[in-house]
């Protein structure tokens, strides 16, 4: 019986292989995909929904804030000259966002907004256009007076067909259980 003796070089080679494997596993663990809930809310309703999704799903939360916050006058949809009316009447308007966050760690983003004039506020377009969303699963959700979310999702799909838009969900009424079922879909 001949027992093969390992040379120092062979031992080092074996050790290095194990080291590479160890760092590959550690690397895979640190870049594990995460989910973000990013939302814009002018009067707090969508914010409350975003917080509930975050709590129920155990996700990260990010508020999309306008550099110039919207005042009550800005939000007066009965006034054609109000800031929101002017923005929504002009498809090229892109309100400035205060700060952008690093979206690289996230593979799924729940994107929340109030329905404005049947679609999403222009600031959501500012956010989409200021970020690289390739390969991410984008799940819209919204609150509204009564309008459905579907036209807003259709608008986002048509305007940004390069991105992966999932069917959205209007969350005017929900419980933790309905959220749980939706998030687990
Ligand atoms: C400028 C503006 C436009 C709106 N347009 C609509 C609309 O088209 N349909 C609708 O059902 N609600 C509309 N609403 C109501 C909001 O969607 C609703 O109050 C929403 O829940 C507010 O969310 P927030 O508190 O997160 O801003 C509008 C509100 C504003 C301020």
Specify the structural class.
Answer: alpha/beta
Shape, principal axes of CA atoms: elongated
Named at the architecture level, the CATH assignment of the domain at 59-183 is: 3-Layer(aba) Sandwich
Q: How many extended strands?
A: 6
- What letter string, H or E per element, gives the SSE order? HEHEHEHEHEEH
- Cofactors, ions and other ligands in the entry: flavin mononucleotide
Largest sheet: 6 strands, parallel
Q: Considering the protein shown, what is the CATH homologous superfamily of the domain at 59-183?
A: Flavodoxin domain
Low-confidence runs (pLDDT<50, min 5 residues)? none
- Report the helical percentage: 25-40%
Q: Let me know the average pLDDT.
A: 91
Number of helices: 6
End-to-end CA span? 61 Å
